[in-house]
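Quarterly update from the structural biology core.
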Amino acid sequence: MSAASASGEPSAKHTKRRPRFVGWRFVLCALAAAVILAAVVRAFFFDVFYIPSNSMQPLLEPGDRVLVSRTAYSSEDIRRGDVVVFDGRGSLAPLHSGRPALADAAVTVGRWLGLAGSDTVYVKRVIGVAGDRVSCCTDDDPRITVNGTPLDEPYVYEGDAASDHGFDVTVPEGRLWLMGDHRSESADSRSLLGAPGGGLISTERVIGEARKILWPLERSTNIDRLSLGAEWNTEK
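Predicted structure, tokenized:
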């Protein structure tokens, strides 16, 4: 049978198929637009990060998905007490993973989907900002001090000391002193004492501020901003 009738019009069979094709094309275009929009939002405004370790317990548990504001510090400075997500390459992680490019791509996709953590992106709490002298600890006071003022740290994991080893650093301009809340399990600024940079993380490496636990639903809650001595004067 001819694909067209004697009058030259398309057959009924072909006329019925066209709406189905148009429908699928619309669905694919809508999905592509949604993916592009999500990529733009996550690249410039908000992102979701998977927590792979217990270094920020009890605030964050392994498997948590955390909403991070990428614009948090576009109009204000990073503050002591903020929980920040940062790129640790060159400080807590090597500049290159050493994995094949395909494996790196798979890790990136898994992280983007919230199914896996990253071995170069970390979440820690800001303890010292530019100009601060951060030290720990003395026989008289086992607490961390910032500019001579002891910190009360209710967020630290129960049973942990403020730090298992001492340090005394002054934070230069453009750098941060970061620590995990689960001090005995956290690789943080203390881990790089004596290394180039002295464990002080560049503010340019900060991706954003952790604002909310999204998943699992039973743990969904806002991450409160703490003010650790905002009124203190820094030592220059």
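Residues 12-44 form the longest helix (33 residues).
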